[in-house]
Amino acid sequence: MKSNKILIIEDDPKIIELVEIHLKDIGLEIDKSMDGISGLEKALSFEYDLIILDLMLPHMDGLEVCRRFKSENKYTPVLMLTAKSEELDKVLGLEVGADDYLTKPFGVRELVARVKAILRRVELDDEKYKEEQAGPRLEFKGLTIDTEKHMVLLEGDRVELTAKEFDLLKLFAAHPGNTYSRERLLDLIWGYQYEGYEHTVSSHINRLRNKIEKDPTNPKFIKTLWGVGYRFESPAED
Fold it and tell me: Could you tell me which residues come within 8 angstroms of residue 103 by beta carbon, excluding any fewer than 6 positions away?
C-alpha cells in the first residue's frame, strides 16, 4: 500500500512542525515550503496526494497559489488554512479551487480528521473511476456480470442480488486479483461515514458467496486472505 505524500505550504514554522508531527504519525510523507512562489513550484513539479495551503503567504498569497495550481492540476485536492473567519475568504478560497478549509486556530484532531476524509474521498473517486472503465459486461468462468442491466448470470441462470451485494460483486470483478480489507470495502460500498460497521461487510460477502459459489465453504470466486481481507479470482479451467 502506497504512502500518501502531502505538501504543506505555510510560513509559520511552529504550525508546520505541529502539522508534520501529527500527519507523520498516521503514516503520511511530508514535504514543505514556506512561501507562495516556491510552494507553487513544488506543487507543480511533484506529485502530491494533498496540498495544505495557508492563505497568508509571503511573495504570493494562498488564493493566487491555489488559482494557478488548479489551472494546471484540477485533481489534487487543496486544504486551505486561513487565520480569517470572514465568509468572504472561505468563498474566495472555494471559488479558486480549494476543496476544503480550516480556520486558525484549529485543533490537531480536526486537521487530521479532515486530511483523512479528503484522502479517502480521493481514493474512493479513483476506485470508482477504474471500476467504470472496466466495461459494461464482465465475464468469468461460469459467471457473467452485466453492469448496465444490473444482472448476474451463473451458468446461464439469473442470480438475484441485493443492491449492495451487486455493488460488492461488481467492485471485486472489476479489479480481479486486488485484495480489499473489510474497512476498505466499507468505504467503497457504504461510504466512509459507516466506519465501525465492518461486520456488515462480512455478512454481505457470506450471502453473496451463498448465491454465486457452488460450495460457499470452498469459494472459487471470492477468496479470503486471513488477517488481510478478500480477493476476487477467476476459477481455473478444469
Answer: 81, 82, 83, 84, 85, 90
